[in-house]
Each structure stands twice: as structure tokens, then as C-alpha cells.
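Posted in: Protein Modeling Q&A

I'm a second-year student putting together a small comparison for a lab meeting, and my supervisor asked me to include a predicted structure for DUF6795 domain-containing protein. I've never done this before, so apologies if this is the wrong subforum. The sequence is pasted below exactly as I got it from our records. If anyone can share the C-alpha cell output, I'd also love a short note on what stands out.
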Amino acid sequence: MRYIVFLILALFAAGCDTKNGEAEMIQMFLNKSEKKTYVIASPIEGVLQKDGKPLSNIKMIRRLRWNGNEGGIFQKVITDRNGAFQFPLHEETLTMTKLAQFVAKADIEIEFEGEKVDLWYSTKFLEGLYDDTAGQFLNDLVCDISNSEERYRNGASKLSTLCRWNDD
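Accepted answer (user: helix_wrangler)
Welcome! Here is the predicted structure, written out as C-alpha cells:
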């Protein structure tokens, strides 16, 4: 144990023996970046309804934002005659420093009878598939615009939605 403490102190002293030693070590760490593929948004498929009845031919817009792209991108889908919709997986390869925190946001909205309706807002801090939904695919997803908003947490990730799903 004494040897480990001595080694740590020796390394610290070696790194700080110059006037700028500490600053150089910090700068070295900040400049080290890593290229990695991140899931910005997991695929979502479900049914859009009002009071349990399908909403057909409705334009749905999913806006995706992440580190370095705060303006975001927009994905548009139109519900079919049964109200069914499907948004694809979206991944990006990002280069980030070790100290940077990955953050992605997704929101889905529609316009219904002249009013904007927010169906989904999520944030995620991990790069994996379904990290914003506790690691699970959302079975039997139904987004009924007459629902009240529900909020879910998965670690630091948050989800606010009018949608409901089967946890099985």
C-alpha cells in the first residue's frame, strides 16, 4: 500500500515539476478525443389516436438534437389509415473529448385541428439503443392525444409523453 501511495505522489510530482506542468497535463487530457458511433434516437413505431380512434393521414415531426447540432434535424412521417407510424433508428459518428458529456434530445409533435400537440420529449446521456426508454423496445405503443402527459426517468435520461406502451 505504501508503494502505491509513493508511486502516485511521484507521478504527481513529476507532472507538476514545471511551472506549467499541471496545465500541460490538463490540456493533454482535454485534447484527447475519441470517435464513436452514438444512437441519437432509437426507432419508434406505434399508433396515433384521439379518444381511442385512429388518426390517419397526420404529419408527425421528430426533431433530433445532439452535441454539435443544436439546430437539429427533422424527420417527417405520415400516419396510415390505421394511425400507424414508424420513425427509424438515427445514429451519428461523433468525435468528443473525454470530458465531454454526450447529450441527445428528441421530440415528436403533430398539428391537429390547427393546434400543435407535443407527443414526446426525451433526453439521453448514453450512446446505446433504447437508452432513453430503460433499454427496452416499446411494445404496443399508442400515442393518444387525449392522454395526460406522463414522465419517466431512466438514470439521468428523461421522457415526457402522451404515449403509453406494454411493459411485457
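A couple of things worth pointing out for your meeting: Residues 2-31 form one domain. The longest strand covers residues 69-78.
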